[in-house]
Amino acid sequence: MVKTLIKKLDFGWRLLATAISFTCFGIGGVLLWLLVFPLLAIWPGNRTEKACRAQYTVHLSFYVFIGLMHRLGVMTYEVIGLEKLNRPGQLIVANHPTLVDVVFLLSRIKQANCIVKASLWHNPAMRGPILNAGYISNADSETMINYCATWLQNGGAMLIFPEGTRSVPGQPYRFQRGAAAIALQAGSIITPVTLTCMPSTLTKTQAWYQIPRRRFHLRMIVGDDVELQTFRELQPRSIAVRRLTQYLQDYFTQQRERHERDGN
Question: What CDD domains does the record tag this protein with (predicted)?
């Protein structure tokens, strides 16, 4: 009886805490758009410098948000290999198991560009960060690839989810070719980051209020850089892109199978 009551109270608190967290996220995004980013925009500097300042601001705000969720008891987290990130010209490729993984990644990467869905440009909570940080729309694939490659060649970092959307639990990965095309065109460092979320929550088919029975644990493992030379030697480029995409898909599939086998 007492255990049942404690579980219900815990569930109720986490539901309330989740609502508080996402409310703060929305309000914070609007405040950044209206108050912070306008100040950053008038600060001297060229377009790239202003975008980098805005990206660092997003990093700090997401760091605070993740800290809030952790302190409220919504989530716990673990990071392995963080020292492999935050390098110039680095393309970070990650799987996408939950809604908050992009926030978590950017909270650990001090400065990075990323690709966002065109629909998010109309989201009040996201519009400010997207516009000011120079994030790249996926509306036109050719323009997207060229812009990303140029950003990497100029020493910027990029974060890409090759699936293009959140993973569907129990379904095989289906990677798009954009990440591979960008990496090969830019000749950049490409670093895989494996994310796991247990219990599964905030997937593509779950609403924010469909919380798990206990706090979810987000685990981030930064892998070793992918050796691109073998793929760059392949001709034509379309074959190289296809082979690299398959390599990345196989890598993340193996990582997921290892996680499921080990039960971690």
Answer: LPLAT_AGPAT-like (cd07989)
